[in-house]
């Protein structure tokens, strides 16, 4: 795979960071996230390197779900925070993907408070 290009500059990989609050109750369901990740890989044409690691994590006010999906071109990580119904998603890959498709897939299924949503793409 050759170097990727953005604004006439070479880069190794794209890193999408997403922070959203006020999500619906899908946020609490491990089975929802398993399906969400499986569908996301198809949407952005990524190949899983291994099985999705996902589990409820933390305790008391810090409880949420964490997930890591290794892909052949890097990884996708996700953490939720039940208290504020928040999700924090990172997608990093040295293979090009459409970050708008990732964001749309997340918003479609979680129906968050869009005013609080933060999205950032880094080219590394």
Question: What is the fold's blueprint, element by element?
Answer:
Elements (H helix, E strand, L loop, with lengths): L3 E3 L2 E3 L2 E8 L8 H14 L9 E5 L6 E8 L2 E8 L4 E8 L5 H12 L2 E11 L1
Antiparallel strand pairs: 1-2, 3-7, 3-8, 4-5, 5-6, 6-7
Explain what you see.
The chain is of the alpha+beta class. It has one domain: S-adenosylmethionine decarboxylase, CATH 3.60.90. It has helices at residues 30-43, 99-110; strands at 4-6, 9-11, 14-21, 53-57, 64-71, 74-81, 86-93, 113-123. The strands form two sheets. It has a six-stranded antiparallel β-sheet with strand order 4-5-6-7-3-8, covered by helices on one side. Strands 1-2 form a two-stranded antiparallel sheet. The model has no long low-confidence stretch (mean pLDDT 92).
Q: How many distinct helices? A: 2
Instruction: Give the beta-strand count.
Output: 8
Structural class: alpha+beta
What's the CATH H-level superfamily name?
S-adenosylmethionine decarboxylase
Distance between the termini: 16 Å
User: Roughly what fraction of the amino acids lie in strands?
Assistant: 35-45%
Main sheet record: 6 strands, antiparallel
CATH overall fold name: S-adenosylmethionine decarboxylase
Mean pLDDT equals: 92
The assigned CATH architecture is: 4-Layer Sandwich
